[in-house]
RNA sequence: GCGGGCGUGGCGGAAUGGUAGACGCAAGGGACUUAAAAUCCCUGGACUUUUGUCGUGCGGGUUCGAGUCCCGCCGCCCGUACCA
């Protein structure tokens, strides 16, 4: 008998329409069922969706559909992270307005996402570039400003001196501007900041209250915030060397216990003392100018060769007046961290040691490692950073580092220097305030005005929104808002005089720091409807890329805290559960000239080796490494092509199978074909079995014969396993279980005769359950299977199958028997057998007696239900 | 540089400290077919003569037992505050 193949091209649109007409996924806040908020990180509308999106949204959709089947009231919205640089780049390159480019991309991508059959509530959709959205973001900005959580300060940017514009870090390539090629310099601008450091302590400690976050993400955030307890320690400058007007320099140190090992002080190139010293020291001034070319990124600064220049200034050791150490300006000291000045203890810090060796500074060990001889111990090229006993350190000798820390702190807190304590304890954070100013057009305008008489004045709330002007040009580099003829002109809300608008727009991370709250009441006049926000939040399951582990997630956590202070919601944390998915990667291909897309490559085998040829030109192709899909390497597979030829369910099934979702998945054509074969196999299983089954409403009772019982045990076990797997987001394992079940059902159905009422009833039960457990992953096919079974209604609204727990337990278990840790046989015992029974049975086994040769075992390890190990 | 992660057959991967390789892909063999596709069945870590021995990036360690835990390396990936 031949079965007609399942045709996703006709089936998928049909079911999508059925869901839409039933408004199945439009969520009501007050609907029945416990709330469950599933959210995937919303996409940047770059043009077309890519496989990473397919994976991200397929993962979230499984959770959403599963929870819905479990009876939850599920919120599963979608929107667009729509501001950002690519729209401006497109405007410059293709003369298309950023808004037009963005909204056209959104239209394309919405259509693509809809073809995936996602259970999204599209009625809540918005884009962050909608005036409606950024209007409310401007309100939030004013609220933060009023609470003192927004302020202005000077900070450095990458300046392209040819294009006369600020560059993003990714636009700086090897220290040069990406368009102009000019050497980039760092330049100070007054910019807007959010006071995230106000919450540093809570952002760090609250991580311990997020058990449903991956440990690695919590660790990364904790290290990023970087809490450290230390001393603010003032060093007097030796009078004969100090520049006029500066008496001392304050360092932050976490190791005051190593103070007697100090051999220099290093200050940041932009430290005031450095500037002062450079006034009379051209070599130093040149060095400081040089460091401005290193770039502003931490990676650039810290991978650069560590260099310093002596200032000629000397500082007096806080514990010994007769001891002076030189003050250097060093390129690895950051003004943003601590005080911008450190003391170097080369023996116990690797970077300080490298610096000391380079400039011939003394290396004096003061922490003696355990079991080392104080006379013989010395530090050559590896600093000793672990615990030990303090020595070479006067009154600290013999103490542990912790005790020495306390002793130094106590003494110097009590010592006066220039009328103030010489030291004070200080908790320091590596976390810096969040700079949100961008000198760009395509972002949310910062709603403040600059008035000559009143200074910086917030715009009145009722004057919002400050809308981006549409008549702009991208003919010249730089910010079009700056050179707009009229947009800047405004009236000061305080004095009524002339004022000019702020032309900085907000970092796009601001947009994505509260969108999850806006989804709970997307059309509210205020930024949130606190009732809706409090009802839905926190997001129960948030899913997105690991690349957002720190910044986006930390900013969102800050925003929730700031919004709570302003009364917009009452919430500790935005995301209760977090899952970070891996990337979709693909082989790369190139011919002599360029990267070649996978669709243009044909493979063959020559002498057992995989060989590739370019289809369009017949040129030989070199098969490159497996890399993240990217436009530049052209190793992209367009989801549209896959959906058009195999259907959305195949694409979904493929990205969910094989690779665990937190790891990278390698896209391969063969894998997709395998997934599609399984779609057809399921379809065949149902269509072929359907005529033998009792009618849908017949209430036939499954039999208790071997065949019926086997079918029932298999399916109930699978449902239990798949439920667990989905709860843990282990979709690859859920899929392996479904494969196993289908393998078994195919075999069992082959032995089933139409007249066997018990078995056919078991088969109907099995198929009805199977259709429902594949539904979250392949929702369209599940509807078709549901229809084949003649079940009423839509599979998408069918409840998750109930399992009979009595079918999950076995009365016999087979234990592997090891001798000296190596498996040598099996033993089948009753499931409830005690340790003693098992021991006895094991010792009676032939191969065990042989191994023992009459001796008693040295040891007999019995782990009931698991394993037995006989040690001889 | 720093912080975090990952590393298991030809490939993707499975394995509460307890039988390493479930499940899938690819491959090989067979059945069906005039033939092919599709489908179904069987075989696949390495070495070895049955018997075994060796195998989870490399080197050590803890344990009755290590892919899993600890220490030291190597390689790759993510982040590094203006890419999103």
From TrEMBL:
A motif ('HIGH' region) lies at residues 43-53. CDD domains: Anticodon_Ia_Leu_BEm, LeuRS_core. Keywords: Aminoacyl-tRNA synthetase, ATP-binding, Cytoplasm, Ligase, Nucleotide-binding, Protein biosynthesis. It is found in: Cytoplasm. InterPro entries: aa-tRNA-synth_I_CS (IPR001412), aa-tRNA-synth_Ia (IPR002300), Leu-tRNA-ligase (IPR002302), Leu_tRNA-synth_edit (IPR025709), M/V/L/I-tRNA-synth_anticd-bd (IPR013155), Methionyl/Leucyl_tRNA_Synth (IPR015413), Rossmann-like_a/b/a_fold (IPR014729), tRNAsynth_Ia_anticodon-bd (IPR009080). PANTHER family: LEUCINE--TRNA LIGASE, MITOCHONDRIAL, LEUCYL-TRNA SYNTHETASE. NCBIfam families: leuS_bact (TIGR00396). This is Leucine--tRNA ligase. It comes from Jiella mangrovi.
């Amino acid at each position: 008998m031949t079965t007609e193949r399942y045709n996703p091209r006709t089936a998928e649109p049909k079911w999508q329409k059925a869901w839409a007409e039933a408004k199945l996924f439009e969520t009501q806040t007050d609907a029945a069922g416990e709330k469950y908020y599933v959210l995937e990180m919303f996409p940047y509308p770059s043009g077309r969706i890519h496989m990473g999106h397919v994976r991200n949204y397929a993962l979230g959709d499984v959770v959403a559909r599963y929870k819905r089947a479990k009876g939850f009231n599920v919120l599963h919205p979608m929107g667009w992270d729509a501001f950002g640089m690519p729209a401006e780049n497109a405007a410059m390159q293709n003369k298309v307005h950023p808004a037009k480019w963005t909204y056209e991309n959104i239209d394309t991508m919405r259509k693509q996402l809809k073809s995936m059959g996602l259970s999204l509530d599209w009625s809540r959709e918005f884009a962050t570039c909608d005036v409606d959205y950024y209007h409310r973001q401007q309100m939030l900005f004013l609220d933060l400003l009023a609470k003192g959580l927004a302020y202005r300060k000077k900070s450095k940017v990458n300046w392209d001196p040819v294009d006369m514009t600020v560059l993003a870090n990714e636009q700086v390539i090897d220290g040069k501007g990406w368009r102009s090629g000019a050497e980039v310099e760092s330049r100070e601008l007054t910019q807007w900041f959010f006071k995230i450091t106000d919450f540093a302590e809570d952002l760090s400690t609250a991580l311990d209250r997020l058990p449903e976050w991956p440990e690695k993400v919590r660790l990364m955030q904790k290290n990023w915030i970087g809490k450290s307890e230390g001393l603010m320690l003032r060093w007097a400058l030796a009078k004969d060397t100090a520049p006029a007007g500066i008496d001392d320099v304050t360092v932050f140190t976490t190791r005051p216990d190593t103070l007697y090992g100090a051999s220099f002080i290093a200050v940041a190139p932009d430290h005031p003392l450095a500037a002062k010293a450079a006034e009379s020291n051209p070599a130093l001034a040149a060095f400081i100018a040089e460091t401005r070319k290193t770039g502003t990124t931490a990676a650039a600064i810290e991978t650069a060769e560590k260099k310093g220049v002596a200032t000629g200034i000397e500082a007096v050791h806080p514990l010994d007046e007769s001891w002076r150490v030189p003050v250097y300006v060093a390129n690895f000291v950051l003004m943003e961290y601590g005080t911008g000045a450190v003391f170097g203890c080369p023996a116990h810090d690797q970077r300080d040691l490298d610096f000391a060796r380079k400039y011939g500074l003394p290396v004096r060990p003061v922490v003696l490692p355990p079991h080392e001889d104080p006379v013989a111990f010395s530090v050559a090229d590896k600093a000793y950073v672990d615990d030990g006993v303090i020595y070479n350190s006067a009154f600290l000798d013999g103490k542990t580092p912790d005790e020495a820390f306390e002793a130094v702190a106590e003494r110097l807190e009590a010592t006066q220097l220039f009328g103030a304590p010489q030291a004070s304890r200080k908790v320091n954070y590596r976390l810096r305030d969040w700079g949100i100013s961008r000198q760009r057009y395509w972002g949310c305008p910062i709603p403040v005005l600059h008035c000559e008489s009143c200074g910086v004045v917030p715009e009145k709330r009722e004057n919002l929104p400050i809308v981006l002007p549409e008549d702009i040009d991208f003919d010249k580099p730089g910010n079009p808002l700056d050179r707009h003829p009229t947009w800047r002109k405004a009236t000061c809300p305080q004095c009524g005089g002339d004022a000019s608008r702020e032309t900085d727009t907000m970092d796009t991370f601001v947009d994505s720091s509260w969108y999850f709250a806006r989804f709970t009441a997307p059309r509210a006049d205020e930024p949130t409807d606190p009732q809706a926000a409090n009802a839905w939040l926190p997001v129960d399951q948030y899913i997105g890329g690991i690349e957002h582990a720190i910044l986006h997630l930390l900013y969102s956590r800050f925003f929730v805290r700031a919004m709570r202070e302003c009364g917009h919601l009452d919430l500790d944390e935005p995301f209760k559960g977090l899952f970070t998915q891996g990337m979709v990667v693909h082989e790369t291909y190139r011919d002599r000239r360029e990267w070649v897309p996978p669709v243009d490559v044909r493979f063959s085998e020559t002498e057992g080796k995989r060989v590739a040829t370019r289809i369009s030109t017949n040129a030989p192709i070199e098969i490159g490494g497996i890399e993240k899909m990217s436009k530049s390497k052209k190793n992209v597979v367009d989801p549209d092509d896959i959906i058009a030829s195999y259907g959305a369910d195949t694409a979904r099934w493929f990205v969910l199978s094989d690779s665990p979702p937190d790891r990278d998945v390698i896209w391969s054509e063969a894998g997709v074909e395998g997934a599609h074969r399984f779609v057809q196999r399921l379809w065949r299983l149902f269509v072929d079995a359907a005529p033998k089954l009792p009618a849908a409403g017949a209430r036939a009772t499954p039999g208790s014969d071997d065949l019926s019982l086997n079918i029932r045990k298999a399916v109930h076990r699978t449902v239990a396993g798949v439920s667990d797997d989905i709860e843990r987001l282990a979709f690859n394992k859920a899929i392996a279980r479904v494969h196993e079940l289908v393998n078994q059902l195919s075999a069992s159905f082959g032995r089933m005769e139409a007249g066997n009422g018990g078995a056919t009833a078991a088969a109907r039960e099995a198929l009805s359950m199977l259709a429902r457990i594949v539904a979250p992953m392949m929702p369209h096919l599940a509807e078709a299977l549901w229809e084949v079974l003649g079940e009423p209604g839509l599979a998408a609204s069918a409840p998750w199958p109930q399992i009979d727990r009595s079918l999950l337990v076995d009365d016999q278990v087979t234990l592997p028997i090891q001798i000296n840790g190596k498996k040598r046989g099996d033993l089948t015992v009753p499931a409830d057998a005690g340790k003693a029974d098992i021991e006895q049975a094991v010792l009676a086994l032939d191969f065990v007696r042989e191994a023992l040769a009459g001796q008693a075992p040295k040891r007999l390890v019995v782990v009931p239900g698991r394993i037995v190990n006989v040690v001889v």
